[in-house]
Amino acid sequence: MGHKASLLTLIAAFLVLGTIYASLTPPWQAPDEPAHYNYIAFLVREGRLPVLRMGDYPHSYLEEIKSRRFPPDMSIEPIRYEFHQPPLYYVLAAPIYAITGGSLLALRLFSVAIGAGVVAIAFLIARELFPEAPELALGTASFVAFVPMHTAMSASVNNDSLAELIIGLFLLEMVRLFKRSWPEEALWKPSVFIALGFLTKTTAYITFALYLIFFGLSAWRRFPPGKRLRLLAFSLWPLLFSLPWFARNMAVYGLTDPFGLARHDSIVVGQPRTYQWLETMGASGLLKAFLLTSFRSFWGQFGWMAVPMDERVYGLLALACLFALWGLLHWLPQGWRALKDAQRLGLILLALSLSLTALSFLWYNLKFVQHQGRYLFPALTPLGLGFSLGLREGLKRKAIVTAGLILALGALALVVKGLITGDWNRFSLALVLAGTAFCVVKASIPEKWDKLIFALFFFGLAILSALCPFIYIKPYLNP
């Protein structure tokens, strides 16, 4: 099967999975979905943009309706705390709401369609960076398509998928600019996606910072001093289209609140604050909760963080992540030197995109307790490419042998600990031994099987994603 056919098959599989999630997830059992839905409903009903006001985050009511699993006798109408969001997603969804009479399923399927675009763009970004390695493009797209929590979020009513699509389109355009050495006539194209990001979600605002960084570090040197500022101004003219949104916010929320975030922070009374947890749990307890919950909820913790997956699933995924990280570290010394300048710039761009997204996630958690790994999804393409590259390199003989030795030492350490303390973590020991056995078997078979083993991981991830609605979502979230 050709790689284009493989991509089409992958997108078709994502659309089928997304439809299953959209159909089987009970109404409103996705984070913040009622508030996003009410934004669309307000647009259609009132014909104007909403304003976030005190009382739009009814904390006690929200906790009760969640605990009762959104029963029909409790209305979602009071839940309006997303009314400060930029309007693009909601404006695009409004005709679907109007035509279908507010069908939740129709709006969820609209999000699924956007998510399919995210999968396709992830493939194209990886293909541009590694044209000689199409398996990396397919691995990256598969990662984006089949992380169970991402599939679930892509099948709910929210503006996340549109923000991810716009970030992906920006990254793709930047990578193409690098390969063409910053042609003057095309400098403005990334700014189109920056402007669209400004009108979609604050998570997309990192595109503006990324553009300025790379224009300053890379493009700036290519142009004579007399043209630099003029070209920078020319490259940013599409941002003018987003100015009315910020002007409206300053008129509504005040001159110092162009994003509406200060208004949002002031109305979410009752949301857990980080300083409160720090006082009760201490720094080490808070850090442990942050890391564990963020990891689990990145892969899958469904509903309003109410339904985690089996701990053994998280263990296997953690082992896969460590294996991919080990392979990536093995690749870096020689692989980086073998890249062309445009490839290096592209990978640095993706790494900075991931870093800025992670920093914004950490910054948010300095104020509010939001240990939700889904906030890293705007950087899912960089994560997927890094994971795919690390997995491919980790399967090579030198890396797999050293990984096996490290895992064997880890198993020995667990045995010694068990003998000394009597505390036997049987699953951890079994997991490390299984990883060691895998490394031994892999090191003994020809490298021609590497691509098959590489593909099998993503097939397994797809199977996990397909099972989650039936094992976790439908049985535990229905009222």
Plain-language structure description:
The protein is 72% helix and 0% strand. It has 479 residues and is mainly α. The protein is built from 21 helices and one strand. The longest helix is centred in the last third of the chain and has 28 residues, at 450-477. It has one domain.
Secondary-structure blueprint of this entry?
Elements: H1 3-24, H2 33-46, H3 59-67, H4 88-100, H5 104-129, H6 134-146, H7 148-154, H8 160-179, H9 189-198, H10 206-219, H11 225-235, H12 243-253, H13 261-267, H14 274-299, H15 302-305, E1 307-308, H16 311-337, H17 341-367, H18 380-394, H19 397-421, H20 426-443, H21 450-477
Helix pairs in contact: 1-5, 1-6, 1-21, 2-4, 4-5, 5-6, 5-8, 6-18, 6-21, 8-9, 8-17, 10-17, 16-18, 16-20, 17-18, 19-20
Which structural category do the helix and sheet elements fall into? mainly alpha
Which word captures the global form? globular
Q: What do the pLDDT scores average to? A: 94
The beta-strand count equals: 1
Radius of gyration: 23 Å
Count the domains: 1
- Helix content, binned percent: over 70%
Tally of helical runs: 21
Which series of helices and strands comes N to C?
A: HHHHHHHHHHHHHHHEHHHHHH
Query: Proportion of β residues?
Result: under 5%
Give the end-to-end Cα distance, rounded to a whole number of Å.
Answer: 44 Å
User: Which runs of at least 5 residues are low in confidence (pLDDT < 50)?
Assistant: none
Q: Main beta sheet: strand number and arrangement?
A: none
List keywords for this structure.
single chain, 479 residues, mainly alpha, 0% strand, globular
